[in-house]
Automatic annotation (TrEMBL):
It is found in: Membrane. Residues 22-256 form the G-protein coupled receptors family 1 profile domain. The keyword Signal does not apply. SUPFAM superfamilies: Family A G protein-coupled receptor-like. Coiled coil: none annotated. GO terms for molecular function: G protein-coupled receptor activity. It comes from Meloidogyne enterolobii. This is G-protein coupled receptors family 1 profile domain-containing protein. InterPro entries: 7TM_GPCR_Srsx, GPCR_Rhodpsn, GPCR_Rhodpsn_7TM. One of its GO terms (cellular component) is membrane.
Length: 301
């Protein structure tokens, strides 16, 4: 076992576990709270579900690497069939969220009053086409009995370029939102304008910039590096970077969306417990100070 590779994989597993817990929490909150059943929040929930699925994909290969073992490819496919397909929705739901927000900012009256069921179906249903295509690719390996380390990778021209196109198109949507907020003549309030600018800028510089860097490195590795050791090294750096970016991204999602209020409601008991502890500590400190004052007065007398 190569120690360097083991360390990289362990760090990646650790960051992915954190990401799984946080993205899973977004999915849970979206399902539980009716206030989060709007189209925008449903898309955020589906995007978070895709991200959560991507976080569990490393576990089978990590276990096999630690055990220095392999299993048949068809077993790997059966294990990864659902999460492996759903994780590809990361890119398509990213686009759907960008389109929905762009239309909501550019055409607010239409967005509030005239959204049809067809619009909702298209925006929620269309992003599943790419995961279904990836599912089709995975199913092709079911008859394969060759030994595998469960690092399933279906590289072709479409799978290489399509995620990059999705990220660029999403970036375009947020740039339109930024331009609308800065130069638009609609009488929106200053606080709303600042919120739009903060949210859009955060997503551009964290989500889109992070994905562009990651996909560019993966494209470079796939097409221009032939040495296996370098491929492994750069690939490990890229996956850890991607995992860290998604953690920062979901934290920014909480800050810039209504999920933060739902999170406060969900863990209100912790806040109350913490507040109660603070009050008790204040009472104890106050009593100590009173006792000291009383003792000092007795000593003077």
């Amino acid at each position: 076992m190569d120690i360097k590779t083991f360390v990289f994989k362990t760090i990646n597993l650790f960051t992915d576990t954190i990401g799984l817990l946080i993205f899973g929490n977004v999915v849970y909150l979206t399902i539980k709270y009716k206030d989060l059943h709007t189209l925008c929040h449903i898309l955020l929930g589906l995007y978070s579900l895709s991200q959560a699925c991507s976080k569990v994909m490393l576990l089978p290969s990590y276990i096999l690497y630690v055990l220095q073992s392999t299993i048949p490819i068809y077993v790997c496919v059966l294990i990864a069939l659902i999460p492996g397909a759903l994780m590809m929705g990361t890119f398509t739901f990213m686009v759907a969220i960008g389109i929905d927000r762009m239309l909501g900012i550019c055409f607010p009256f239409w967005y509030i009053q005239n959204k049809s069921k067809l619009y909702r179906i298209l925006l929620v249903g269309t992003p599943f086409l790419y995961p279904l295509y990836y599912l089709y690719l995975m199913i092709q390996d079911l008859p394969n009995n060759s030994p595998s380390n469960c690092l399933l990778n279906y590289v072709n021209v479409f799978n290489t370029l399509f995620p990059i196109i999705c990220v660029i198109f999403t970036l375009f949507c947020y740039l339109i939102i930024l331009l609308k907020a800065i130069f638009g003549k609609d009488p929106i309030g200053q606080s709303l304008r600042e919120a739009i600018l903060k949210s859009s800028a955060t997503l551009i510089f964290i989500q889109n910039f992070g994905w562009i860097c990651y996909l560019s490195v993966k494209f470079y590795i796939t097409n221009y590096i032939e040495d296996n050791d370098q491929i492994l090294l750069y690939g490990n750096f890229a996956t850890i970077f991607s995992s860290l970016i998604t953690i920062i991204e979901v934290l920014s999602l909480f800050i810039t969306s209504s999920h933060l209020n739902a999170l406060k409601m969900e863990f209100e008991w912790i806040l109350k417990l913490f507040h109660k502890t603070q009050i008790n500590n204040s009472v104890v400190i106050t009593n100590i100070k009173i006792n000291k004052i009383y003792q000092n007065s007795l000593n003077k007398n």
